[in-house]
Amino acid sequence: MYSNIALSIGGSDSGGGAGIQADLRTFMALKVHGCSVITCVTAQNSVQVKCVEPLKKDTLTSQIDTLFSDFDIKSLKTGMLLNDSIINATALKLKSFSIPKIIDPVMVSRTGSKLLEDSAINAYKKLLLPIADLVTPNIFEANLLSNLDIKNQVDIEQSAKSIIKLGAKAVLIKGGGLKDMKGRDFYLDVNGGKKWFINKFINTQNTHCSGCTLSAAICGYQALGFDLIESIQKSKIFIERSLKNSYQIGSGPGPLGHYQ
Ligand code: PLP
């Protein structure tokens, strides 16, 4: 019996760059069996998200129930959840699972398309942060979750405190969106544990899915039995290597690579 199983709950990216497709590639690279619960389908390439279609609530919850009724899933992550209804249904199901839950609060694509309705930010705060073992916002997402306008390292630490106050057990704020914070991510947990994870900045245009890939790698390492801090440390190294191996497949930013 193979028992290293992880689950990604998120959106399908038809271009194979981000979302569920990126997560499954990441799990595979870590030799973790990946399951997926699709929340919505996007028509997407490297330059645009052309359309987004959410799945029916019953189709969503049925995917979750079917997986957990048979598989011993060791960890899970969420990605694109789009709207209130999907967040509500997902949070209700996830509440009862005591495995590590990583919440990647995906809001906007690199190409500027909304992947979360504005009205759904409150549902994230109320329903998903309180059940999160780790939340992994970028600067833009951290601003919205903590009602701040982050400009520097001090603001990042302040934002992390606010996110912990909303109920998350731990938060990892990705600094890459700020000029001087590339490769620097700040971790804070509910017990006051804190740490700056600092990695080499890899200068490439092909960063499509770097956010999804980081949260999927953390989830994957947790499925392999590593603790949270070890999983983050290993995932940062994984991302550095995947960015070095990233490649272009269309006219816009390409995905991270795990092939070498
Ligand atoms: N599409 C889907 C389905 C996603 O889940 C995400 C991010 O998580 C994106 C697109 C955005 O990826 P990027 O920010 O690299 O454009």
How is this fold's topology laid out?
Layout: E1 5-13, H1 19-29, E2 33-44, E3 49-54, H2 57-68, E4 75-78, H3 84-94, E5 101-103, H4 121-128, E6 134-135, H5 139-146, H6 153-165, E7 170-174, E8 184-189, E9 194-198, H7 210-223, H8 228-244
Parallel strand pairs: 1-2, 1-4, 4-5, 5-6
Antiparallel strand pairs: 2-3, 7-8, 8-9
Helix pairs in contact: 1-7, 2-3, 3-4, 5-6, 7-8
Bound molecules: pyridoxal-5'-phosphate.
Characterization of this structure:
The radius of gyration is 17 Å and the shape is globular. β1, α1 and β2 form a beta-alpha-beta unit. The longest helix is centred in the C-terminal third of the chain and has 17 residues, at 228-244. It has one domain (5-244): Ribokinase (UDP-N-acetylmuramoyl-L-alanine:D-glutamate ligase, 3-Layer(aba) Sandwich), CATH 3.40.1190. The model has no long low-confidence stretch (mean pLDDT 96). Helix content is 36%, strand content 20%. It has helices spanning 19-29, 57-68, 84-94, 121-128, 139-146, 153-165, 210-223, 228-244, and strands spanning 5-13, 33-44, 49-54, 75-78, 101-103, 134-135, 170-174, 184-189, 194-198. With 260 residues, the chain is of the alpha/beta class. Strands 3-2-1-4-5-6 form a six-stranded mixed β-sheet. A three-stranded antiparallel β-sheet has the order 7-8-9. The chain contains eight helices and nine strands. Residues 10-11, 13, 18-19, 42, 44, 79-80, 106, 109-111, 115, 208-209, 211-212 line the site of pyridoxal-5'-phosphate (PLP). Pyridoxal-5'-phosphate is lined by residues 10-11, 13, 18-19, 42, 44, 79-80, 106, 109-111, 115, 208-209, 211-212. InterPro entries: HMP/HMP-P_kinase_dom (IPR004399), PM/HMP-P_kinase-1 (IPR013749), Ribokinase-like (IPR029056). This is Phosphomethylpyrimidine kinase.
